[in-house]
## 1
Amino acid sequence: MENQVLIFGHKNPDTDTICSSLVKEILDKKMGYENRKAVRLGNVNKETQYILNYLGIEAQDLIEKVEEGQEVILVDHNEFGQSVEGIEKAKILSVTDHHRIANFETAEPLYYNAKPYGCTSTILFEEFKQNGLKIDKKEAILMASAIISDTLLLKSPTTTDHDKKALEELAKIAEIDVNEYGLEMLKAGTDLDDFTGEQLVNLDAKSLEKNGVKFVIAQVNTVSIPDLLKRQEELESAIHNEIAKKGLDFLVFAITDILNSNSEILVLRK
Ligand code: MN
Ligand code: MN
């Protein structure tokens, strides 16, 4: 991809990563940078697919690695461990992110826009405003969807007033009822029927180690905890397999009801 600047979010892309990279490409082009190209580092999840279908657009191209010297722009992440293969030797032009900064180093100066907001798209929304750029309907839907996803309809504890204000304004431009559209979108992402127990345990799993104790915290979102608990036996055997396979001391599996902000937690130990 000669002369193209690649824009991407993290591996295991979520809605913010996919939507924010698409929006960043549009924003940069509106600023006069023509050679921008949003790409992705993994498969699109069901929630994000709902948004792409709603807009009638295809996901951006998938890439697996970048060559030495490739110019790149990061959104929704900064840690190299969550980024593309080859990132250490790429040239990072800018980062727009709402996560902690860790394991991040560049050889050259760069633009770095970090805000402790609930979503990367909220930062991009403010960049549109700061630069006096108009937001059209498609861009508004992409950004509103990312905010709805990252803040679980403004209910997650990471939500800030900036996210609330952005979503309110974007919903008007997008001509969507936030609650109605948001619930449909979140529900589309919680269709867990096709996943095996092993896949469910690995959908969103973080490996951690403290004082020599190795454990994993995993989570899935659903609209019905009892529905998923019908598969409790299968889940427990998958959890036991993970514990054995990864040599864990224990595994925490949280099943979160996104409608009621309620969780049921399975904890199994070796
Ligand atoms: Mn993300
Ligand atoms: Mn995010």
## 2
Amino acid sequence: IEYYQPKYYSDTETIVGAEALARWKKPDGEIITPSRFAGLFERNGFIRRLDFYIFERVCKFLADAKANDRKVLPVSVNFSRVHMHDLHFPQRLLALTQKYGVDPKDLEIELTESAFFVDTKNINKVVDMLHGYGFSIAIDDSGSGFSSLNMLKDSNFDTLKIDANFLDGFERGGKVGTVVTSVMRMAKWLGIPVVAEGVETREQVDFLRTLGCEMIQGYYYSRPIPREEYQMLLDRN
Ligand code: G
Ligand code: MN
């Protein structure tokens, strides 16, 4: 099943949309996060089916919202780098949106930064095709690897996601915020909005705001929540 973690604008503190996150519900009701199964699923190839399964559930969620005259906010879905070798991947996503009658503009595809090291030529082709169909692209985990400005400037993506874990134990003016600060500066040069993930404290929110970080996602605002809960949150706003 999929959980939804809302993202907020840092200035207005209103909801931008959400990221869909895979959760495994065991028969006894226990909920398991991907850290426990992602490695295995990547090795045995099941990750492909999991990514598509989550994407399809999100399409259904958006279609239901539309059918009930609810406001539709974009949802981002994570895709493993294994899809980047498949030139039919964009077409398959498009087919799913058509099956549910949803607009690709309401879907954002999250690719991890490390995917861009696998096969840059192929991945840029896939990214361009996705854009052609109207999807937007986010680069996940930026700064965690070794984001080269060059690599990022040669690819067309719409959002940069950085992990605020870089801020762990940060003090204003200290060294810890440096990575985040430089990734933010790089994003400004490229004219690309940034989402900070893993934001847990008010201090982090304030610091990110002073850096001009547009969007914030993390436990400070909300943990990943079941779809019904996310829908209720949207209805209240
Ligand atoms: O790789 P990606 O950035 O898509 O992973 C997001 C993961 O981070 C999810 O599994 C989610 O549960 C977790 N997460 C989301 N917000 C926070 C947070 O504020 N703190 C921590 N430690 N983890 C978070
Ligand atoms: Mn992600």
